[in-house]
Write a structure and sequence with these properties.
With about 130 residues, the chain is mostly helical. It is about 75% helix and about 0% strand. The longest helix has about 40 residues, at about 1-45. The termini are far apart. This is Serum amyloid A protein.
Length: about 130
């Protein structure tokens, strides 16, 4: 009985530590996504959008499964929110379904661990 109780207790502790690890990765991945968004806004560089999408997702996914999950949730939420608001604003955001698909491809590229520099435009300052 003591062995069984000990095994159950160890399973609960290990499960809780796994959950805490996942949540920590998700929090750090969220920060990576916010940092990429901030850098994109700061750079204000034409043609760099896909690079920052890929970089944010790449950095977040490098944190582990929690970071990859956070990157997917944030990326999908951002694109879905943009699509929703475009329906109700006059003229939309100037984007469109094709641009949204390209953004999502860059997101997936980064999350899969591929080099985000594939999307880096020529002339973007090294700071980014």
């Amino acid at each position: 009985m003591k062995l069984f109780t000990g095994l159950v207790f160890c399973s609960l502790v290990l499960g809780a530590s796994g959950l805490l690890s996942f949540l920590g990765e998700a929090a750090r991945g969220t920060w990576d996504m916010l940092r990429a968004y901030h850098d994109m806004r700061e750079a204000n560089y034409i043609g760099a959008d896909k690079y920052f999408h890929a970089r944010g997702n790449y950095d977040a996914a490098q944190r582990g499964p929690g970071g990859a999950w956070a990157a997917k949730v944030i990326s999908d939420g951002r694109e879905n929110f943009q699509r929703f608001t475009d329906r109700f604003s006059f003229g939309g955001s100037g984007r469109g379904a094709e641009d949204s698909r390209a953004d999502q491809a860059a997101n997936e590229w980064g999350r899969s661990g591929k080099d985000p520099n594939h999307f880096r435009p020529h002339g973007l300052p090294d700071k980014y």
